[in-house]
Amino acid sequence: MSEACIIHIGDDGCASLSGMLTFESVPGLFRETEKLFRGITPVASIDLAKVSTADSAGLALLLEWQAVQGKAKQRLDIRNAPSGLLSLAQLCEADDVLNITGRSSQP
């Protein structure tokens, strides 16, 4: 059984994810956050420092969240991405679209 991905949203509009952002966890996380990202309080940033691993489903979810924020004329900052996710975003040329940065020890 894979580890779930948990989201915590602070009062300041900053969210943090922890766990695994993978094919197994993304559908549940998407359902959990669908209304949140279309809500009144915009999410300004997402910290991925506690995400242990992420795959292409995680990348797709982040792209969806960024698209929703873009429609609302908001920009979502995605910080502290694990190296595999950052590499995947760069390979897909989605790193600029995502406004994503890696962990401090990554380039």
In terms of topology, how is this protein built?
Elements: E1 5-9, E2 14-21, H1 26-33, E3 45-54, H2 56-71, E4 77-81, H3 83-91, H4 95-98, E5 100-102
Parallel strand pairs: 2-3, 3-4, 4-5
Antiparallel strand pairs: 1-2
What is the top-level CATH class? Alpha Beta
**Bulk shape:** globular
* Count of runs of 4 or more consecutive helical residues: 4
- Helix percent band: 25-40%
Low-confidence blocks of residues: none
Reported CATH architecture: 2-Layer Sandwich
Q: H/E order of the elements? A: EEHEHEHHE
Please state how the strands of the largest beta sheet are arranged side by side: 1-2-3-4-5
Structural class: alpha/beta
At the fourth CATH level, what is the homologous superfamily?
STAS domain
Please give the number of β-strands. Answer: 5
- Average pLDDT: 88
CATH topology tier name: Transcription Regulator spoIIAA
The Rg value, from CA coordinates, equals 13 Å
Taking the alpha carbons of the first and last residues, their distance comes to 32 Å
Beta strand %: 25-35%
Domain tally = 1
Q: How would you describe this structure in keywords?
A:
5 strands, alpha/beta, 107 residues, 5-stranded mixed β-sheet
Describe the 3D structure.
This protein is an alpha/beta fold. The chain has a single domain, classed as Transcription Regulator spoIIAA (2-Layer Sandwich), CATH 3.30.750. It has four helices and five strands; from the N terminus they run E-E-H-E-H-E-H-H-E. Strand 3, helix 2 and strand 4 form a beta-alpha-beta unit.
